[in-house]
Amino acid sequence: MEKVTEYFGSMVFDDRIMKATLSEKVYKSLKRTIDRGTPLDISVANAVAAAMKDWAIEKGATHYTHWFQPMTGVTAEKHDSFISPAPDGRVIMEFSGKELVKGEPDASSFPSGGLRATFEARGYTAWDPTSYAFIKDGTLYIPTAFCSYTGEALDKKVPLLRSMEAINKQALRILKLFGNTKVKSVKTSVGPEQEYFLVDREMWKKRKDLIMTGRTLFGAMPPKGQEMDDHYFGSIKPRVAEYMADLDRELWKLGIPAKTKHNEVAPAQHELAPIYDTTNIAADHNQLTMEVMQKVAQRHGLVCLLHEKPFAGVNGSGKHNNWSISTDQGENLLSPGETPAENAQFLLFLAAVIKAVDDYQDLLRLSVATAGNDHRLGANEAPPAVISIFLGDELTAVLDAIETDTPYGGTAKEKMKLGVDVLPQFSKDSTDRNRTSPFAFTGNKFEFRMLGSSNSISCANIHLNAAVAEVLKQFADELETVSDFNASLHELIKRTIKEHKRIIFNGNGYDDAWIAEAEKRGLMNLKTTADAMPHICDKKNVDMLTAHGIFTEAEIFSRRDIMLENYIKTVNIEAVTMIDMARKEIIPATAKFAADTASAVAVKKSVSKAACKYETKLVTELSELIDEMDTAASELEDAVAEFRTIEVIVDAADFIRDTVLPAMDKLRSAADKAETLTAESYWPFPAYDKLLFGV
Ligand code: ADP
Ligand code: MG
């Protein structure tokens, strides 16, 4: 067996390969572009392109593609081969700097939310040299940003890079105030933990709902669900273990540092976590990971479900976005330090995150809002739709002491004085145990836990970075003008805690009492995508996002429309699929079982005096349920028809939430009851027990 250390990153045009294949001058120039964003000379681009092509061909590649992340949520690619005609009728393999740096996919069929009229379909992709090129399936993949010709972002990478630049700029101002002049750049890092389900491919094929929508639209709970809690961290079944090993290998070849794998809470549910990386690379890698997960599953006769809620009544899947900020000197700014000065700096960054999360609750909430994730948030398995921060008791006590000018810890005689006193040592363990908080401090990073399993992590990080950049800016504006830095710093932190401590909650986030309490504290509770998404256009959000150059106003409005369109399209497909399954599969199957039972009664009665009480009751119940399903299906048909007449997108989203989704619930409820009364051999597709325990 080949050693991991030998094949890790073997398909990546990484630093090692760059050094080996580029001249020193070209390498240095490219490094400058990667590290500091300096523009790339065309002669350098040509040299890099030539080296990339030779390396890729050596590895068996015949094509290249500009790989990008349009607003559809999945990645896009168009493959061009390297071939170019030669005078002798044969071909040579070519790849120029121009082709590396810029591409022009036909952009007309990607969502732009009105940014780009279809007659002006041109958009272009631009190479992102900060994310390594790689080879997959015989093609050289070049990570790129996707823009319109007028410069508007049409993807998720451009605003993510802009948000990283915003936080870099503001954090550097803060560090300078602390006398930290060596630092050249500040970057955010992310480690996304990815949850997923595995189901058997043959069973999957029999379910239109899984095929069309990625989740089961019908299905009664099996006799055994997850109540035994025997799956979490349980031993991994051989077929799953083989899948995971294969997946690790594929990811490692692509330079993705897959680190942890284990079973999750629900049966058939698992998790994979990589080692954290710079945010834009983590985003590219997570996108690739999701794709590879699905591809490898096929090879094992499995299907990998990334939907947030594949099974009603069973835990859904999310993604934990572990986030930190650190300097090019390797200092994690969210790590409590050893000296008083380091601690003061840590507390300022901590205060900034607290204020940012409080001021921009809506932006964080809507960054994870999708039709799929609406089924999870607030359903006692994932954090509620209310944003709050978990800090742990120790850190909360420190902040209390600062806010109220009282001694920390009761026994200490001294008050906490910033810039003078050393913070108590926090044990990482004591901060890491709350699993119900949407946004938890875990010792040296924050874990944003509301992301859905299929979400791109870009949206959450764009908004998080932007919000923190904004608060750091406010802090820097204030502190840059003061004469007594330590005293002003102390006052600023104190004031920030006082004004924003409402967002801190260390208790059980799944408790209904918390929702009531949160309401009293004035926190937002945006339950659905339809409720959350329009807030991106609130003035305070538009002002902040445009001030930091994250989005233009036009981009913000277009994004709202794209995300809402995504929501309504998703639910509409689900509704239509439900009607189809109910009319063509479920109602006929139930009717057939009822008819057969009724015939059996007739036969029985013809030969005996039996009353056939059970069968008669069953046939009656089934007939009633058939009528109920028919009525509910008709109501859903009407709702879908009415929905199609609504032109204003926010109204359409409200209609989905208020009318279509409840109609779907009604149809499902009748069908699930029918399922529990119908003999298994009559049911038209595999039930939950088969799907969940069939691998
Ligand atoms: P768990 O949450 O299961 O206790 P960890 O906290 O160790 O596990 O790691 C979860 C994820 O957080 C991993 O992807 C890990 O690489 C990432 N992570 C660890 N430290 C940091 C950090 N400083 N910044 C960002 N992500 C981090
Ligand atoms: Mg975690």
Describe this structure in words.
The structure is a single chain. The protein has 695 residues and is an alpha+beta fold. It folds into three domains: 151 residues, Roll (Ubiquitin-like (UB roll)), CATH 3.10.20; 364 residues, Creatine Kinase, Chain A, domain 2 (2-Layer Sandwich), CATH 3.30.590.10; 127 residues, Four Helix Bundle (Hemerythrin (Met), subunit A) (Up-down Bundle). It is 49% helix and 13% strand. It has 23 helices and 18 strands. A hairpin with a 4-residue loop joins β17 and β18. α3 packs across α4, α13 crosses α16 and α20 runs parallel beside α22. It is globular. The two termini are 27 Å apart. The model has no long low-confidence stretch (mean pLDDT 92). The structure holds adenosine-5'-diphosphate (ADP) and magnesium ion. The site of magnesium ion has 3 residues, from loops.
Task: Describe, in short, the structure shown.
The chain is α+β, with helices and mostly antiparallel strands. The protein folds into three domains: 4-154, Glutamine synthetase, N-terminal domain (Ubiquitin-like (UB roll), Roll), CATH 3.10.20; 163-216 and 229-411 and 425-551, Creatine Kinase, Chain A, domain 2 (2-Layer Sandwich); 567-693, Four Helix Bundle (Hemerythrin (Met), subunit A) (Up-down Bundle).
